[in-house]
UniProtKB/TrEMBL annotation:
Keyword Chaperone: no
Subcellular location: Cell membrane; Cell projection, Invadopodium membrane; Cell projection, Lamellipodium; Cell projection, Ruffle membrane
Domain Integrin beta subunit tail: 631-719
InterPro entries named in the record: EGF_extracell, EGF_integrin_1, EGF_integrin_2, Integrin_bsu, Integrin_bsu_cyt_dom, Integrin_bsu_tail, Integrin_bsu_tail_dom_sf, Integrin_bsu_VWA
The protein, known as: Integrin beta
Family: Belongs to the integrin beta chain family.
Highest taxon in the source lineage: Eukaryota
Main location: membrane
């Protein structure tokens, strides 16, 4: 498994190398991990191009580039304006102008950006108490809104009284709209242009948009002017409200908008026309998004089409206007979808006669003001910005949720972590300005962006330096930065001369056919070696014939991990030798426990025992799987010498005098392995009489020692009497058991027979009639002549 840190190290290194940067400025724009070595004396080796100066920082240090020669400029953040957010209570005697109230901090800062290195700063937002509010009420005056107009006539003073609970600085204005004054939106007959309503209804002439009352703090003036308004009429159901919204947004001076909270209440009981619908009336010019109010009337409705939703979103955002759609229940789904497209907007359900409009406005304002959403101006190409919000109660948000915080009350403070990252330097200049602001608020943060496009050492560069082949380049940051059309390490060639045969010949080793050994490119008659994915792997040499990664390997390690690869040959560390530095000269790994090398049964080669006898094996030739055991090998000799018995009794003196015999009284007196520094074997063997004897075998300083227990451990003989008595008793007991079993079986059999007899007796039936073959011995004869007289 690859370590992620190592992977990233190699990955970044390959990015820096692959970029083939020819100057310090190009190098630092590749990635934030890339640095440039400006050491002009000893950094580059033979065959290396100047692009090898660009590498990741650790690789430059590993290649012995002095730290003061590594160019690695970093970005920075400077706060230019940092006015604290305003802390003020509503009942405070101190009255501040809108421009004196601060809700966002800081207000201006400068970021110095290097490609790939994000700069993060903190932005604080706090809802100020008693913040001024401008509210413009834009109402649909088509005929279906007649009863609504009656309820709005007293809206000014009632709403002023209600808004005093929120702010002491409140202004209100009023405008109305109907529809474009062309067919088929209205009837263009002369009579209908004067009074578009049918029957006896008295209506005013149709109009597109009218600014009735500029924003004012006089509620009674609002009531007076609204009371003078009359209903108008049109033909189709959708209204021209988008034309009116556009004019309210862009005509700041005529409406009287201040740089405070701006609310637009859009009241209607119908849908809306949008871009493209104007073609029905022959209007094809797109809405220009400019103010066209003359005498407070929109005069270009017949000339410009309705604005698109996207156009409205842009203008409302540019002018920091928050929209409240007060619509009837029938059109709630339509305006809910519109709310999803317009940031910082709300939808409220308007009763059939607008009697609940004040409550609707208060609820919508509380909903809008409880959420802060950050937006930024258009970003320069190659720039990205990310947000992280830290909201109320420490709730964090990232991604799109990182731009906003919800459920904010007056006086609550939230913060945002904003990261700005550049991927490249701008083509048209070294500085840009972007602005970040909360939607619906006039305050904004100005962010000045400065880009690091070159190294500090480039400022000291020597133009047309003689060190760059007769002045064909600028010598800066330890290398030549060639003029246009010149290449080479010292700008010694023009691009047209690079591939000539004469120059290529200088790049062939020993007049061979391979240019730069197929490991590099011939530039101006000099080999510039290729770069590898792994920055640790390097081609080198005059003809790129050398490298540091094609040496012999051992255990899958270059030079066995015990040397360095130089020009395809291993230079081994001390105590190692061999083509792959895999042969250790240290014999400590061959020492056996007895202090002998390979137990005296082999030689130590490259730190490994080579046993001279094939039957021995193991790390120190200590094992012999095919040899008889030590105990079995010496059993007969120990038996004959210690007990004058065994198979070698007759030849004991001749065959068994090779060891020294020591007798002990019992097995506890035998030597133990933990007490010895030499190999020791414990043995337990049995003789022909089934007696056990115990001994140990060891070799001490070439002397074989045998310790043996002087007494044999023989099993005792059998006791005859108990055996005979046991047999007799067993026979008797078995006989008695058989008799008892027989008797038990007979009793069971008799009982069964008796039970059977009793059962048959009970079932017997005796016949009490005469015997059918019985004949009586008496014969009765009747005298026929007898008359009974």
């Amino acid at each position: 498994r690859i370590n992620p840190t190592v992977f990233m190290f190699f990955f970044q290194g390959s990015i820096c190398i692959k970029a083939n940067a020819q100057s310090c400025g190009e190098c630092i724009q590749v990635a934030e991990s890339c640095g440039w070595c400006s050491d002009e004396v000893s950094f580059l080796s033979s065959g290396e191009s100047k692009s090898a100066r660009c590498d990741d920082l650790q690789s430059l240090k590993d290649r012995q580039c002095p730290e003061d020669k590594i160019e690695n400029p970093r970005g920075a953040i400077v706060i230019d304006k940092d006015t604290p957010v305003t802390n003020r209570k509503k009942d405070s005697k101190e009255k501040l102008k809108p421009e004196e109230i601060t809700q966002i901090q800081p207000q201006k800062l400068t970021l110095t950006l290097r490609s790939g290195e994000p700069q993060t700063f903190s932005l604080k937002f706090k809802r100020a108490e008693d913040y001024p509010i401008d509210l413009y009420y834009l109402m649909d005056l088509s005929f279906s809104m007649k009863d609504d107009l009656e309820n709005v006539k007293n809206l000014g003073t009632d709403l002023m009284a209600e808004m005093e609970k929120i702010t002491t600085d409140f202004r209100i204005g009023f405008g109305s709209f109907v529809e474009k004054t062309v067919m088929p939106y209205i009837s263009t007959t002369p009579a209908r242009l004067i009074n578009p309503c049918t029957g006896n209804q008295n209506c005013t002439s149709p109009f597109s948009y009218k600014n009735v009352l500029k924003l004012t703090d006089k509620g009674d003036e609002f009531n007076r002017l609204v009371s003078q308004q009359q209903i108008s009429g049109n033909l189709d159901s959708p209204e021209g409200g988008f034309d009116a919204i556009m004019q309210v947004a862009v005509c700041e001076e005529q409406i009287g908008w201040r740089n405070v909270t701006r609310l637009l209440v859009f009241s209607t009981d119908a849908g809306f026309h949008f871009a493209g619908d104007g073609k029905l009336g022959g209007i094809v010019l797109p809405n220009d998004g400019k103010c066209h109010l003359e005498n407070n009337m929109y005069t270009m409705s017949h000339y410009y089409d309705y604005p698109s939703i996207a156009h409205l979103v842009q203008k409302l955002s540019d002018h920091n206007i928050q929209t409240i759609f007060a619509v009837t229940d029938d059109f709630q789904p339509v305006y809910k979808e519109l709310q999803n497209l317009i940031p910082k907007s709300a939808v409220g359900t308007l009763s059939s006669n607008s009697s609940n409009v004040i409550k609707l406005i208060i609820d919508a304002y509380n909903s809008l003001s409880s959420e802060v959403i950050l937006e930024n101006s258009r970003l320069p190409e190659g720039l990205s910005i990310t947000y992280k919000s830290i909201c109320k109660n420490g709730v964090e948000g990232t991604g799109e949720n990182g731009r906003k915080c919800s459920n904010i009350s007056i006086g609550d403070e939230v913060s945002f972590q904003i990261s700005v990252e550049s991927q490249k330097c701008p083509s048209h200049g070294k500085s840009e300005v972007i602005k970040i602001k909360p939607l619906g608020f006039t305050e904004e943060v100005e962010v000045v962006l400065k880009f690091i496009c070159d190294c500090e050492c480039s400022a000291e560069g020597e133009l047309n330096s003689q060190r760059c082949h007769e002045g064909n380049g600028t010598f800066e940051c330890g290398a030549c930065k060639c003029n246009a059309g010149r290449i080479g390490r010292l700008c010694e060639c023009s691009k047209d001369e690079v591939r000539t045969e004469d120059l290529d010949a200088n790049c062939r080793k020993d007049n061979g056919t391979d240019i730069c050994s197929n490991n590099g490119d011939c530039v101006c008659g000099t080999c510039e070696c290729k770069k590898r994915e792994n920055p640790k792997e390097v081609y080198s040499g005059t003809y790129c014939e050398c490298d540091n990664f094609n040496c012999d390997r051992s255990n899958n390690k270059l030079c066995g991990g015990h040397g360095v690869c130089e020009c395809r040959k291993c230079i081994c560390d001390a105590n190692y030798t061999g083509s792959a530095c895999d042969c250790s000269l240290d014999h400590s790994t061959c020492l056996a426990k007895n202090g002998q090398i390979c137990n005296g049964r082999g030689t130590c080669e490259c730190g490994i025992c080579k046993c001279t006898d094939a039957k021995f094996q193991g790390p120190t030739c200590e094992l012999c799987p095919t040899c008889p055991g030590v105990c079995a090998e010496h059993k007969d000799c120990v038996q004959c010498r210690a007990f004058d018995a065994g198979e070698k009794k007759e030849t004991c003196e001749r065959d068994c005098s090779y060891f020294q015999l020591i007798t002990v009284k019992d097995s506890s007196k035998l030597p133990q392995p933990t007490d010895q520094i030499f190999p020791l074997t414990h043995c337990k063997e049995r003789d022909a009489n089934d007696c056990w004897f115990y001994f140990t075998y060891a070799i001490r300083n070439s002397t074989k020692e045998v310790y043996v227990v002087e007494k044999l451990e023989c099993p005792p003989g059998p006791d005859i009497i108990p055996i005979v008595a046991g047999v007799v008793a067993g026979i008797v007991l078995i006989g008695l058991a058989l008799l008892l079993i027989w008797k038990l079986l007979m009793i069971i059999h008799d009982r069964r027979e008796f039970a059977k007899f009793e059962k048959e007796k009970m079932n017997a039936k005796w016949d009490t009639g005469e015997n059918p073959i019985y004949k009586s011995a008496v014969t009765t004869v009747v005298n026929p002549k007898y008359e009974g007289k």
